[in-house]
Each structure stands twice: as C-alpha cells, then as structure tokens.
Amino acid sequence: MEKILTPYQKDALHYNKHIALTANAGSGKTFVLSRRYVDIAQKEKIPLRKIVAITFTDKAAGELNKNIAEVVEKRLNNSTNPGEIKTLEKIRRQLVSANISTIHSFCIEVLKEFSPEAGLDANFVPVDQTTADELIELSIEETLNQLLLNDSELDVKNLIRFFGSQKILSIEIKKLLKNRKAITDLYEKEYSKDESEIAEWFRNNFREKFKYLFIDKAADIKSLLAEINNYVLSLKPDNPIAAIASELIEKINSSLSPFEFIELTNQIAEQICTKAGGIKARSYLPNDEREDLTSQINEAENLISDILKIEIPDNSEEVEKLLAVYGKEIASLFILAADEYTSKKEERGYLDFEDILHHTKRIIGKPEVQEYLSSNYEYVMIDEYQDTNEIQYEIFMPILNNLKSGNLFVVGDEKQSIYMFRDADIKVFMRTKKEIEQAVKKDGILSLPHSFRVSPPIAAFTNEVFKELFKEPDIELNEVEHSNLVCARPEETIGSVQMIISDEEGEPEAELVAKKIITLMSDQNPDFGLNDIAILCRKRSVFAELEKAFSNHGIPHTVVAGKGFYQKQIVNDIYNYLSFLINRDDNTSLVGILRAPFFTLSDTEVFAISLEKGKTFFEKIINYSAENNKYNKIIITLTDHISIAQSSEFSFILRKIISDTEYLPVIAARENYKQELSNLEKLFKVAKSFEQQGFKSLYDFVDYLKTSIQNLVDEGQAAINEDEQSVKIMTIHQAKGLEFNTVFLFRCNDTSEEDRIKSRSIVVDKDFGILTKVPNANNYFEDFVSAPINGIYNYVSNRKNIGELKRLLYVGVTRAVQNLIITGTIKNGAAKKKSFLDFLTSALEIDLEAADHKIKTNLEFMKLKGEEYEFFDKKIEFDISIERVIESKINSLKISGKEKLGNKTYLLNHIEDKSEEEIISATKLAVYTQCPLKYQLTYELGYSDINSIFELTKSESEPADFEFQINENDDDDFVGYAEFKGRVIHKVLDEEIDIQNLNKRVDELLEKEFYNRSTSKKVFESVKNSILNDLQQFYRSQTYKELIEFSNYKNEHEIYLKLNDFYLYGIIDKLIIDNKKIIIVDYKTDNIKEEEINSRGELYLSQLKFYAVLINEIYNPNEIELRIVFTKFPDINFAKGITEKEINEFREYIKSVVLSIRNNNYPPDLNHCIKCHYAVDGKKCVKANSKT
Question: Are 554 and 894 a contacting pair, CB within 8 Å?
Fold first, then answer.
C-alpha cells in the first residue's frame, strides 16, 4: 500500500492545471514529484518523452529517477490488473531514456536535435570550465595585443591606465566573459546609446531607486526617529540636542529630493549620533535608559548608516558621465574579446555552459522550433525552482506557450534560496507564481507547510526565529515572506535546541564541539552513531580547526565533498614528479619530490645534497650518492621513470611512480587516509580521461595540472563512503536536501565583508549597469570617486546578501531532525552584527550571558488518525541551554586496543645534548651581537612570544620606531606594527609593484596582516599611510633610479653556506651583480631621524657583514659593497666597502659566537639596554633587576 497523502500533497498531485508549489523543509516534496510523474505517465498513458523533469544537480536527477522507479515497482507489486501492469512495465522500460536531467543536459539534447537551426555542428563538444578559461585568457590576450598594435577607435591604453595594469584589465574582462548574459543585455539595451543618454539613465535610475528605498518610507523613518527622540524628551524635556533633532525630524517628508534627504539625515546624525555611528549616550540617551528601545535604536543606527554611505559628489553629473564613458569602453572591449572567444570555440566545435543556455533560448524563439517543442513536451516539472534564473525561465515559458498550453509544475521554497552567487533569482519564482495565478486563479498557488523532519522544539524554534527575520518581505531586496512549519512529528518526540558559547579566554570553539560530541556519544542510545552528527559551516576555511580538534580527540570524521582537489598536497606531489620527468633541470620540483612521501628525505639531507657540486640538483644528488649508497635507489628509480616518461600513458606512469616509491604506505598511515587514497584514485581517472582526448603529451598534462592548481579551486575532492561511522563536516550549501539527527551550526558569530564597488574592478548588474569607481576629472593619482548609482547598488547588494544570509541560516537550522546545537565565539559578551548569532539573539532577545533562554509558544501539529490527517495547536515550552564549559568523563573516542604501547624497552640513561648542524641566520647573529642575554631570552627561552602579547596590547597610538625583525623568515620576533610595515614594504619591493598600483597592493597586504586582529580603523590607516609615504618617497628618490638601472640582480635572494659543523642562512633584499663587483642592498623601514642614520646603520652592519661572508664564499667577487637603504631617507645611504681581511675576521667572529651559544655563554651587554625590548622601564637590564 502506498503512503497516505496529506491534504496538501493531494492538492499538489492534480495535474490538470499549472501549479507553483512552495514546499517547506522536510515536507515530502520529492515524494510528491515522484508520485506526480508516475500518475501522469500511468493515467494519461503518454510516452515518457513527453514529460520533462528538471533538477538542480545530476545527483538530484539520479535520485528522482530512482524514486520514480521505486514508485513504479511498488505499484507493480501491488497490482493484479493486467492492463495496469502492462502500462507500468512500459513506464519502467522507458525510464532509462526519460527526460529527467539538469537544465544543461536538457538543453544539450534540444541543441543536438536542432543544430542546423542553431547554426551549430551537430557534433559540438560541451567543454569544462578549465578549457573554457584557457580559451578566454587567450582571446583576451590576442584582443588586447591587436588593439595595442593597431590604431583603433577604442583607446585600450586608457583602459590599462584606468585599471592600473594590463593584467588587472584582463582579469576583469575574463569575469565579464564568464557571465556574458548581463553585459550583452545591457549593451543592447543601454550601452549602444551615447554617453549622455547612459549618464541620464544612471541619474534617473538612482532617483527612482532612492525614492523606492527611502523617500517612499519617509513617514516610517520619521516615526522611528521621532519615537526615540520623544523618549529622550520624556526623560529630559529641556534636552537641547533632542530639541534640535525634533525640528530636523519634523522636516522629513516624501517630497524631498535624494540630495535633500541625505543632507537632512546627515544633520540629524550630527545631533544624535557619535562619529562611530551609534546613538549618543552622553547628553542624549544614556545606556541605562535604552532597554525598552533596543530594537528601535538598532534599526535607526543601521538606517542612518546606510543612507550616509550613499555619496553624491558635488560634480555628480560629471562623474556619471565619466562612468558612462568608461562603461561604454569596457563594453566595447568585452564585445571584441567575446567575438574572439566565440571564433575560437567555433573553430574547435566547443560550447561552454553559458553558450548551451544562450543558444537554446535563441532557437526556441523560432516559431517552428517552439511549435515542435510545445507539441513534444506536454508536461514540464522543475524542482528547486527558487534557485533558477532568468534564462531558464526564458527557455521553458515559450515551450509552454507562456502557459497557454501544456502543463507546468514548479516546486521550491523561497526561504531556501541560497545560490545568488550562481545567478539564482528569487524574482523568477515570484514572477512565475504571479503568471500561474493569472492563468488558473489561486488554485494554482499551493504549499506543503508540514515538516516530517524536525522535532517539535526545532519546529517551534524555527517559527519563532524566522517570523522575526522574515517579517518585512521585499522581493526587490531578496527578503522573503515567512510561513510557519506545521510539525508532522508526534508531539511527544524528544528534541532540543542548545547553544555553546566560547570566549577569547576560554576553550576554543572547535574544542568545545569535540567535547560535546564525546558527551553525546557517551549519553545516547546504541542506535545513535557518529553518522548521525553533522557539523555545518558557512565557509570551508574553518574545516581545518575542526579536523585538528577531532583528530586530537580521536573522533572519526569525514569532510563531505570538500573542495580544492587540485590544491591538495597529493596533486602537488604528482605535479612536481611529472614536472621533473619532463625537465630534469627543474630543481624546485626535484626537491619537492625528495621531501615528499615518495622518498621522505629530511630537510637536513636535502640541505646536505644542495652543497654538493653540480649545476642542477639532479647532478648534485648523483654526485652525493657516490659517497652515500643509501641514495642509489633514488637515482635508479628516477632514471627509470625518466626513461619511460615520453613513451607511456599518463595513467601508467602515475601507477608506476606510486608502486616504485614509498608514497602509498606513507599516506595509508595518515589519519585521513581514505580521503587521500580516494583523491589519488581520482587523479588516476583525471589522467586517463585527459589522455583519451587524443594528441595529448605528458607536457600537456603537466600544463593542465599547473593551470588547475592555480585556478580550479572549486573542484570537489573524491567522494568516499559516507556510510562509515564518522562525523560529517560540510558547508550549509552542501547540506541542502540532507538531514541529520544532530546538527552543529559552527562559527555562528562569523561575519562577511560587505560587498562594495571598488576602484579598478567592475560590477555588472542588469538593473544598475556597468559600475566602478572613476578617476575624478581623469586624475589617476588621486582617490577614485563613486557616482550616486554606486551607493544605491552597494546598499541593495548588501541588503540582498543579508537576505540570503538569513535564508542560509534557515537551511542550516532545518537540517536538524532531533537536536540543533548552535556554536559561536564571542567577544565582550555580544554577537557581531550581521552574524548568525546576531540574527538569533535579536529575533529571540537571547542574553548570551545567561545560562539558558526559555521558549513558550503555540505550535501547529499534523497527526495521522486512521486514514486522515488532523491538525491541532499545542502549547510548547522548552529551554535553550547556553553552555560555556563541556564536562566529559572521557577525553577521546579512540578505539580501545589501538592505543596500546605493546612491548617496548625503555632506556633510562642520561642523554647528552650535543649541538651540531644548527642553522644560524643573520637575525640570530645580529641579536647576539646586540646583546647575548637578549639572544637567550629570544631564542633559547622563547620570551619573544610573551613580548608579542605586550606589543599587540599596548596603546594604538603610533607604530613602533624600530624594525627589530631583520627580514629572515625563519625567525619569529616581536610582532608589532613595525613588523607589519617592514613585511609589507619588503613584499612590495620584492614584487616590484609600480607606483600606480601601490595603494591597492598595500591594502591587500595589510588586510592579510591585520586579519583576525582587533585593530581600529585609525591604526590601520596610520600604518598604511606610513607605508605609502615611505614607498612613494623611495620611488621618487635618486637611489631608486640608480638601483633600477642594474639589469643583473636578485630580489629576496636566499643563500646557504656550511661553515665547520653548522649552517649559515640569510635572505638578501637585493643582490646586484655588476661584473665582478657585488652590491648587497638591505632595506630598512625604521621610523628614525636623519641624524640617527649612521648609528642605526652601524647597528645593522653585522647583518650585512654576515651576508658578505656567504657571498664571498659562493660568488668569489673582486669587490663587495654593503649598502643600507632607509626607506624614510632613501637618498642618504649608509654604504661601506668590505675587504677580504674584514670578511675573514667576521667569519672567525661567527665561529666564536656559535661556540659561545653552544657553551650557554650569555652575558648581558648593558650598553644595549636603552634600545632593548626586555629592558625594565626602558633602560634597566632585566637580568640585573631579577631577584634570581
């Protein structure tokens, strides 16, 4: 007997009309889709080719096909009617070729059938993204080269100046080519006009959107601000700020222009808001009087901030004209590059994913094709319709003659639309609903409100949270309407909602999650396993900390459909190996191979080999093996593989590499060995597939791997058996359509950076146009400015992103069946704005400092009684526990028996520690030279880490003056703002960034440096300005002009040298080789005075002498010059020559220092105290003042 249908499901199965079905999470929509499909095929007795079922993914298509097959089998098993059995058997036979697929697969079939009408070769090849990217890059390069070589109306040099470099321009055009529909439509609609008309369109568009977003809501805004201000006046009627604010608020009305509205908002903000944007506490609304107005204050603060972010420059019409000019030039360049890209695809018979949709839409517009498809496809069913886009709508509506024929069934849930980044558009669902309603009245708009998935507490929690988060639906801003879940689980079903809150001083969040899992596994019944637990995250970047915590606690875990396959170490290892096989002079690849699990040589061994004679590293290891027999096997293996590399299939070479080396045993011993082995097997399949394309050499495959490693970051890792007992770690997007008994929502206090239009980058939006910041009056050396339309776009874009973030939270919450556990790390007891925790605590007014939060509400239940469902309301009450400490009786889930030590012999004799073969860097020597005690504190006792804390918690007034970190990457010295400055400047000079791109590159580097650090904007800007000032001053200096004249040089040059039984190591900022003379240049970023240059130079001199010892041994020059360039005073160089005698003396000095270190000889140098970080009160030796 088939499952008893709910009344909502029965309504959805009527196929005599068009239907738009909204299906809540766990409502049984897949069952409805499967049943509807079989009902149509069986009752109408039509061939399956007349039914089209479209799903979002290939996996979903396979599952739908499977579910349909199961429905058919059940009916066959239950039927005794010969005619019915015959029909069902026919359906079963036809299922193999049924139109159940993704939109792209469906379109490919249409294009193959109508290839002449589409102007395509019937044997066209759908290409993957990697191949498409290669052709796009080639097309852009050739287009730009043609324009630069030939005279053209399009001034491409102006565009290169605008973007700062040809590389950035190419990247931006590539983004446009990968999303061609928007800009193509815009070109036809707006950018074929002249610049004045485009500028006028910007202006009108801005006014219309600003009016809709703000001016039309003037009464509500006025009411909100007046409510707060009147409350202030009720506390103190003669409050002067409130009195002025009252007059200003009264002026708010719907007749104001955008400029007047923004100006009035600014005047109000100057009265009632602090500079940081919050409502003033002092002199206006004290903090202890805000409890009853918390939500209104938050709303007002956000509103004022949003309005004031919209800039209207004084010369806005000129800026709009410039934006139109640049947009038109960008669109013209795009058209040329797109034409070149199209030509290259046509030559090869290729179609990319966007072509497939575009060509299908185009040919369906032809009457004869549309008529044929309309008669051929009578029923169209589309799943996950909330994630469809405009072009898919434009393909299916003509097939159904715009709902005048055929039958359309779309099912989805606006609350679960989470693919805006893939161009999904909720408006399409709403538009389709409206058109179905016009065609068949309200009967066609249905819903499945019930959920067979979630327990009553989770259903109640979901309703309470999202009735608040979705209370202001606005489709223009991606804000959807709320609908309550009807709980279809028994009311006595046990469930829970819990919160785990970490703070900066407590245990890390991942650690608490691990302990909670151990507790769950200890407390639950035998039927509960690790497979029932899923950790859902917003971003993959947090997976690593979970994996580390789970490994520490012996919790088996699986990263589900993890991305970044080509960035995994296993792929890099194989890439290195194959790179070496095609080029034995590739030293980098060979070193990588030797250190990898193929041969597992230690760094010490690799370093020893590097000192052997030989032009290449391969020659060095061959020579080295003459006296070290253990390396002979490596030479034989590599030589054998080189000999077969050019004559064997890629897949055979890979398997031989694996079988001839120790690679497999090493990775098989790793904790995540199943994933590693699966990835390795996937790489074999990739190689096999690549060689089957024909005419591909090993060089081509290596190049393919290189490109994939650099660009294909979204390629999924190999799937592994998900049935094994392990906790699943995945993103919320990956969890869509899945359910788990217990769900952890991890890192719920994380936020994302706001989307904003930036200089030298393009945003294309079908409603706003081609947007970017433009150089004011075409001055490229000043800050670029925004047209007013940019501000509106930023606002709308961020509101849409917030809307999608709320829906992402909804999807995460509704994956839980029994238990939902929300985790987050907070600071100062509060959630970050626009985080999941912020949404939850605001919606339910949760106090995160409390031990729990009580939920009391009514919940609607649906219960099967006999063969009918009944509905009833019931009061439900439960506590959300808020835990900060997790107590567990055991600390690990490691399987008993696997941790046994076995029979071992313990050696208890004293082990003598003899130092040898240690690495001495220039920094270490410099520190010892300054003060031996300082060396001991820093390197032997590890006090530099403690000092780092003091450095970062000191006053944020000015960056430190002294660049203590002396450029060696192996030293972890005092990490403060001076180090940030030093690292950024050295990086810029190493990359030789031109002056036009300085600002952007410094921004990028500083954002990385300040990532995860709580730092004010003032400090960030202070450090940035200091860096830019020094760099710009250096670029304008005579010293810089002299240095760039040398053609033979090396930046950031690493050097090694073995001296006696230890190694010397250094990184030289710039090594200039001028015939037999060598100039060692060292950049210093100290914040010093001019008169200090000589004394500071003397302080650093030991470092450069150290480099001179290494250079003299390696290069044997006739002359060495040591030059220190202080970026603050670049034209006042500290330069000295160094003689052979001085070099020899310093070599002996290095030996004496190493001997002193080995003998633990660390006397204090009291003359250095005044400059020492460890000095007490900035002048007294820490040792002299120690009581010990």
Answer: yes
Q: What is residue 1067's three-state secondary structure? A: strand
Nearest to 11 by CA among 431, 53, 490, 23: 23
**Dihedrals φ, ψ of 40, to 5°?**
-60, -50
Q: Residue 937 above 70 pLDDT?
A: yes
Q: Which of 839, 866, 883 is the last residue of a domain?
A: 883
Tell me, yes or no, whether 806 and 704 share the same domain. no
Tell me what pLDDT residue 239 has: 95
Residue 1005 lies in a domain: no
pLDDT the model gives residue 34: 93
Task: Categorize the per-residue pLDDT at 1179 as very low, low, confident or very high, splitting at 50, 70 and 90.
Answer: low
Residues of the domain holding 305: 209-315
- What is the rounded average pLDDT of the residues 649-653? 79
Q: Do 699 and 751 share a structural domain?
A: no
CA distance 414 to 401: 25
Q: Residues with Cβ < 8 Å from 205, sequence gap 6 or more?
A: 767, 768, 769, 789, 792
Lowest mean pLDDT among 8-12, 870-874, 991-995: 991-995
Between CA 387 and CA 413 the distance in angstroms is: 9
What are the angstrom distances between the C-alpha of 655 and each of 574, 641, 658, 684, 958? 11, 11, 5, 8, 58
Q: In sequence order, which ranges of 494-631 are alpha helices (DSSP H)?
A: 509-523, 543-552, 569-582, 587-595, 603-610, 617-625
Predicted pLDDT of residue 720: 67
Query: In the Cβ-directed half-sphere of 27, how many Cα atoms lie within 13 Å?
Result: 27
Helices 195-213/316-348 angle, 10° precision: 110
Q: Which segments of 429-503 are extended strands (E)?
A: 445-448, 450-451, 486-487, 496-503
Strand partners, 1167: none
Flag whether 1036 is in a domain.
no
CATH number at residue 652: 1.10.486.10
Distance CA 795, CA 797 (A): 6
Based on the domain organization, do 836 and 928 belong to the same domain? no
What's this model's pTM, rounded to 2 decimal places?
A: 0.70
Same domain, 274 and 261: yes
Other CB atoms within a 10 A radius of the CB of residue 489 amount to 22
Contact 976, 1074 (CB under 8 A): no
Check which CATH number belongs to the domain holding 501 and give it: 3.40.50
* Strand ranges inside 26-112, DSSP E: 51-55, 99-102
**Among candidates 948, 1079, 1104, 959, which has minimal Cα distance to 1030?**
959
What is the distance between the alpha carbons of residues 801 and 419, in angstroms, rounded to a whole number?
11
- 407 close to 41: Cβ distance less than 8 angstroms: no
Write out pLDDT tens, residues 848-878.
999 999 999 999 999 999 889 999 999 999 9
Asked if residue 741 and residue 620 are part of one domain, the reply reads no
Residue 184 lies in a domain: no
Give the chain's mean pLDDT.
86
- How many structural domains does the chain have? 5
> Do 244 and 387 have their domain in common?
no
Distance from C-alpha of 705 to C-alpha of 570, rounded to nearest angstrom: 12
Q: Are residues 215 and 286 in the same domain?
A: yes
SS3 annotation, 900-922: CCCCCCCCCCCCCCCCCCCEEEH
Question: Among the three residues 883, 906, 936, which one is the final residue of a domain in this structure?
Answer: 883
pLDDT above 90 as % of the chain: 53
> Which residues partner with 412 through β-bridges?
22
Within this chain, do residues 221 and 357 fall inside the same structural domain, yes or no? Answer: no
Longest Cα–Cα distance of the chain, Å, equals 108
DSSP one-letter string for 175-241: HHHTTHHHHHHHIIIIITS-HHHHHHHHHHHHHHHHHHHTGGGHHHHHHHHHHHHHHHHHH-TT-HH
* CB neighbours of residue 3 within 10 Å: 11
**149 lies in a domain?**
no
